[in-house]
Specification:
Number of helices: 15
CATH class of the largest domain: Mainly Alpha
CATH architecture of the largest domain: Orthogonal Bundle
Number of domains: 2
Mean pLDDT: 90
Radius of gyration: 23 Å
Structural class: mainly alpha
CATH superfamily of the largest domain: Fido-like domain
Distance between the termini: 37 Å
Strand order of the largest sheet: 3-5-4
Helix content: 55-70%
Largest sheet: 3 strands, antiparallel
Strand content: under 5%
CATH topology of the largest domain: Fic-like fold
Low-confidence stretches: none
Length: about 375
């Protein structure tokens, strides 16, 4: 990495675009990174243990995806939080519905991409498909969803003349993305955690789409780690770390370009993997403890315990519920009976009514939501 050159600014007449160096080449890794790499590997190994041994882990994956969607879109300026994202669209206030749509698209894009990995390799094709879903019917829907840009874009400022960053010219985007794809599948030794860190940096530098680059770039991290079987389940997401350290995130990306300092970006990325893995492990521990505590509370409900357990299994996957869902899940004969069950679950403080719902009375599994 000591010989790394990030690229150069090339005059395009009335502006200069940054043309990055290619990444599909031989790399010499700085030995200073080995301790962080080892720690990141160890933490990921611990996280994968949960994927192997926790029963019904798929019930919990959906909440991690939801948190990732909320945090990744928050970086882009949306204001939907996890509670809003859990609601049906008609329950969301009108001023938040566009943001709600973007979060739902992110969830769909990630889930579809994970399924597609079984038949489509990590590639430009996969990236384009994911981008198309991400922008469907939302802000950016008129900015060539699923297609690499054919016009110049820029970041910051009102126009090209005062932009803070101008990515490579559009007629070079395909060439750069082809190089990135080859690098992703190059089997020459390059630790996969460093590889995806570099892929993320390079993708954001290329900025191949007219909109949605940040969200797609963060999605790529999870998709790559799943394809390489570093993650057995999609339970590691760095958007929360990037959001909490937003200025450091952008500063470290810029330092690569301005100072050719790739090592600092690698360190930041690996710290994110370590911290996020540890946080995920702690969350799973808290979930297991919560399941145990809630199970004890449910047993105090006597004849209603069986139906209450059905509700709890649903709530661990989707921690909001309304009375018609309770009736359908339990097979109770009337809404009155469903409300009585809800009342008992409120009494033992398992669920809590959400204030300010637009139409129906909605009940939250608040302790569970709070863990995320």
């Amino acid at each position: 990495m000591k010989k790394f050159e990030s690229g150069e600014y090339i005059s395009q007449g009335n502006y200069k675009s940054f043309q990055p160096g290619k990444v599909n080449r031989k790399w010499d890794i700085d030995l200073d990174l080995i301790p962080l790499l080892s720690e990141a590997d160890r933490k990921l190994g611990g996280l994968n243990t949960y994927s192997d041994y926790i029963p019904n882990i798929d019930l919990f994956v959906s909440m991690h995806v939801l948190k990732e969607a909320s945090q990744s879109n928050k970086i882009e300026g949306t204001k939907t939080n996890i509670k809003d994202a859990l609601l049906n669209k008609e329950e969301v206030s009108s001023e938040k519905r566009d943001d709600w749509d973007e979060v739902q698209n992110y969830i769909t894009a990630l889930n579809e991409a994970i399924i597609n990995l079984k038949r489509i390799p990590f590639s430009s094709r996969l990236i384009k498909n994911t981008h198309k879903i991400l922008l469907k019917g939302v802000r950016g829907k008129n900015k060539s969803p699923g297609e690499f840009r054919k016009i110049q874009n820029f970041i910051g400022g009102a126009d090209l003349q005062d932009a803070t960053y101008i990515p490579p010219v559009p007629n070079t985007v395909g060439e750069y993305m082809s190089d990135l794809e080859k690098f992703a599948h190059n089997e020459d030794y390059f630790h996969d955690l460093l590889k995806i860190a570099l892929i993320h940096y390079q993708f954001e530098t290329i900025h191949p789409f007219l909109d949605g680059n940040g969200r797609v770039g963060r999605l790529l991290i999870t998709l790559f780690l799943i394809e390489k079987n570093i993650l057995k389940k999609p339970v590691l997401y760095l958007s929360d770390f990037f959001e909490r350290n937003r200025m450091l995130y952008y500063d470290n990306l810029r330092v690569v370009q301005s100072n050719n300092d790739l090592k600092q970006w690698f360190k930041f990325f690996l710290v994110g993997v370590i911290e996020t893995s540890q946080n995920s492990i702690e969350t799973f521990d808290k979930i297991l403890k919560l399941r145990e505590d809630v199970g004890k509370k449910i047993q105090t409900l006597g004849v209603r315990a069986k139906n209450a357990n059905k509700i709890i299994e649903h709530l661990f996957k989707n921690p909001v519920i309304e009375v018609n869902e309770v009736k359908a899940l339990t097979g109770l004969s009337s809404l009155t009976s469903a409300y009585k069950l809800i009342g008992e679950m409120e009494r033992i403080r398992v669920i809590k009514e959400m204030k300010g719902a637009k139409r129906n009375r909605i009940f939250l599994f608040k302790e569970y939501i709070d863990l995320f």
